[in-house]
């Protein structure tokens, strides 16, 4: 079945990474895959555009089914291959509700991380303002503290939606990992750090760890002051 799948991806991209984690969890190793370079703008190539007309990664195809939005791909894989690997959607209503809440709530963290990390990349030099930089950093700091608070309510060794690994972890972990990659302190945010360290040892995460992170374990320091 995995041979009918094609994934075009970029190293370190949380959307790409979560799809790869889902594929591993659902025991779908052996799919067709190709690592592309954002720096070389390979995500704008015809190969990608033929699957994803937005020119973005991931570009994922299973047979004739195309799912380029990472949430859609992960949810599709769980639905289509429910009997393979661990069940990623909890049966309990409380756990399932929490799973969906955290899955979609993390979009706030992703957005605020991007506003800080990529501000200079996105905003032309003449349009940059110290007030905007300050506001973006304050918004991100508030968001990170909110997530640290969520993890303070989670039992040690538990996952985002309870004792069982779920789609919430598939979706959220790559964003948390991205924050630590850019210098977030495990000392200032010990609960987030404990979750990050626990998840790093999960086989699906280890098998899909971004290759350029392996080559260069030392990440950025954009978030070291947070």
From TrEMBL:
<feature type="domain" description="GST N-terminal">
    <location>
        <begin position="3"/>
        <end position="85"/>
    </location>
</feature>
<dbReference type="InterPro" id="IPR036249">
    <property type="entry name" value="Thioredoxin-like_sf"/>
</dbReference>
<dbReference type="GO" id="GO:0006559">
    <property type="term" value="P:L-phenylalanine catabolic process"/>
</dbReference>
<dbReference type="InterPro" id="IPR004046">
    <property type="entry name" value="GST_C"/>
</dbReference>
<dbReference type="GO" id="GO:0006749">
    <property type="term" value="P:glutathione metabolic process"/>
</dbReference>
<dbReference type="GO" id="GO:0004364">
    <property type="term" value="F:glutathione transferase activity"/>
</dbReference>
<dbReference type="GO" id="GO:0005739">
    <property type="term" value="C:mitochondrion"/>
</dbReference>
<protein>
    <submittedName>
        <fullName>Glutathione S-transferase rho</fullName>
    </submittedName>
</protein>
<dbReference type="InterPro" id="IPR004045">
    <property type="entry name" value="Glutathione_S-Trfase_N"/>
</dbReference>
<feature type="domain" description="GST C-terminal">
    <location>
        <begin position="92"/>
        <end position="226"/>
    </location>
</feature>
<dbReference type="InterPro" id="IPR010987">
    <property type="entry name" value="Glutathione-S-Trfase_C-like"/>
</dbReference>
<dbReference type="GO" id="GO:0016034">
    <property type="term" value="F:maleylacetoacetate isomerase activity"/>
</dbReference>
<dbReference type="InterPro" id="IPR036282">
    <property type="entry name" value="Glutathione-S-Trfase_C_sf"/>
</dbReference>
<dbReference type="InterPro" id="IPR040079">
    <property type="entry name" value="Glutathione_S-Trfase"/>
</dbReference>
<dbReference type="Pfam" id="PF02798">
    <property type="entry name" value="GST_N"/>
</dbReference>
<dbReference type="Pfam" id="PF14497">
    <property type="entry name" value="GST_C_3"/>
</dbReference>
